[in-house]
């Protein structure tokens, strides 16, 4: 999400849906059971500043403030790989790139988890767009200014902006730097129908009570 975007992810999902309906298809009897999903929202300035392997990625060079790294199925299956195509239409690929700019990362994501979701690639990425479009983000997460923030203050801001979201639906992840803890990722947990839910026990945040949110500059 470039820094010039509004704090809410503004994506015209109607262009993708074309008036169509459903996001999913019926899973076969052999398909893994999915109990929900976890969406990872990455803090791009922090990751780009401290990971030399990523600072030449498009999301870093073009000034993205947030990036969706994936919508991960909650399943007991140990192998979620698939050989099915991750190809999207040019229009859908353009819209998805606004929140997931690295095409190679999108393809790798699908091939790693596509075998555990009851959707094809187009439906899967459409679901991510819908979730991102719905999620409202406090301005502190897209600001040009670096600041220190209390975890409970940020959590409460997100809760107030998103109806139906509960405290247990959000987990914060941080990395330790010489300057202290830096927020790198927010995880949001969903039911299969897209409603928010309490995160599973294996999704645990590691941020302290206070951490730094790195600005775009």
CATH topology: Ribonuclease Rh, Chain A
Radius of gyration: 17 Å
> What is the tally of helical segments?
7
Q: By CATH's scheme, which homologous superfamily applies?
A: Ribonuclease T2-like
Task: Count every beta strand, where a strand is a DSSP E run of 2 or more residues.
Answer: 6
SSE succession:
HEHHEHHHEHEEE
How far the N terminus sits from the C terminus, by CA atoms, comes to 15 Å
The strand order across the widest sheet is 2-1-5-4
Q: Which outline best applies?
A: globular
| CATH architectural label | Alpha-Beta Complex
What is the CATH class name? Alpha Beta
Whole-number average pLDDT? 85
- The level of helicity is 25-40%
Helix/strand structural class: alpha+beta
Structure, explained:
This protein is of the alpha+beta class and 217 residues long. It has one domain (34-213): Ribonuclease T2-like (Ribonuclease Rh, Chain A), CATH 3.90.730. 27% of the residues lie in helices and 19% in strands. The protein has 7 helices and 6 strands; from the N terminus they run αβααβαααβαβββ. The chain has helices at 13-17, 44-50, 58-61, 90-96, 103-113, 121-134, 151-161; strands spanning 37-43, 66-73, 147-150, 170-177, 180-190, 210-213. The strands form 2 sheets. It has a 4-stranded antiparallel β-sheet with strand order 2-1-5-4. A two-stranded antiparallel sheet has the order 3-6. A hairpin with a 2-residue loop joins strand 4 and strand 5. The longest helix has 14 residues, at 121-134. It is globular, with a radius of gyration of 17 Å. Residues 3-29 have low confidence and may be disordered.
């Amino acid at each position: 999400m470039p820094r010039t975007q509004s704090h809410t992810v503004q994506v015209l999902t109607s262009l993708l849906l074309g008036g169509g309906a459903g996001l999913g298809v019926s899973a076969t009897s052999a398909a893994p059971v999915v109990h929900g999903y976890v969406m990872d929202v990455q803090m791009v300035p922090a990751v780009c500043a401290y990971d030399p392997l990523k600072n030449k990625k498009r999301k870093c060079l073009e000034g993205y403030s947030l990036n969706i790294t994936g919508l991960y199925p909650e399943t007991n299956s140990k192998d979620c790989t698939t050989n099915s195509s991750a190809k999207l239409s040019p229009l859908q690929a353009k819209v998805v790139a606004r929140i997931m700019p690295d095409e190679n990362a999108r393809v790798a994501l699908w091939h790693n988890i596509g075998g555990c979701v009851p959707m094809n690639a187009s439906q899967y990425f459409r679901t991510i767009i819908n979730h991102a479009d719905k999620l409202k983000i406090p301005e502190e997460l897209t600001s040009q200014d670096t600041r220190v923030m209390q975890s409970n203050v940020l959590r409460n801001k997100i809760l107030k902006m998103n109806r139906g979201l509960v405290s247990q639906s959000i987990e914060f992840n941080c990395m330790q730097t010489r300057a202290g803890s830096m927020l790198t990722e927010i995880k949001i947990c969903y039911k299969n129908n897209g409603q928010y839910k309490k995160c599973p026990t294996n999704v645990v945040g590691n941020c302290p009570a206070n951490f730094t949110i790195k600005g775009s500059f």
